[in-house]
Amino acid sequence: DLVTRADVLRRAGRAEESVALLRQAVRRMPRDPEILAAWAYEAVSRKDWAEAARRFERVRQRGPERVDGYEAGANALIEDGRGDEAEAVIAEGLRRVPKAGAWAILLAAARVADRLGNHDEAIRRWETLRDQFPGRPEGFVGGADAVARVGRGEDAAALIRQAGDFFPSNKTIAEAAARLLPPEPLPPPASP
Questions:
Q1: Is CB count within 10 Å lower at the N or C end of the chain?
Q2: Taken in order 57, 138, 119, 180, is the CA torsion positive or negative?
Q3: What's the mean per-residue pLDDT of the chain?
Q4: Within 10 A of 5 (CB to CB), how many other CB atoms are there?
Q5: For residue range 83-108, what is the model confidence (pLDDT) as tens digits?
Q6: Which residues are CB-neighbours of 67 under 8 A, at least 6 positions away?
C-alpha cells in the first residue's frame, strides 16, 4: 500500500519521494483516515505544528474513532501554542473514541494539562489514568512528576515506590525513581 511504501522511502532517507507518494495518496484517496494520518505525521516530522494540527483535524473528520486524530492532534495544537483548542480536542476524543483507546486519550489529557501548567488538573488527570488503567506505568510516572512540580516530594516518592512494587523491572519507573527519590544514605564505614 502507498502508506507503507512512503514509510519505507522515508526510512531509507528518501524523504522527498516519500512526501510525493503521500501527496499522491491523499489526492487519490482524500477520505482514507490511514492515509490522512500518515500525511499528518509527515507534518509532525517537520515540526510544522500548524499544518499537523490542520491535517489531524481531517483525520478526526474522516476517522472519528482513530485515537491518533485526537492524541497527536492535541499535541500538535499544544506545540503550536493553541492550548484551549487542544483541550477541546481531548474532550471530543473522550466522547468519541472507543473504550479500547480511552487510555491513550486520558494520557494525552494529562500531558496537555501538564504542558499548560494547569497543575491541579494535571494531578487529577494522572490520578484518573491510574484509577482506570492501573496496569499502565505512565499514570504513576506522570503523576509523580506532576506532584513533584508543586513541591509534594513525599507524594511523588510514594507514587514511584508504589509503581516500583507494581512494575519491578520497568526502565521508565527506574529512571523516575532515580530522578525523584532521595538518595539512599551510604552505610557507615566498616570498623577496623
A1: C
A2: negative
A3: 92
A4: 14
A5: 999 999 999 999 998 888 889 999 99
A6: 93, 97, 101, 104, 105
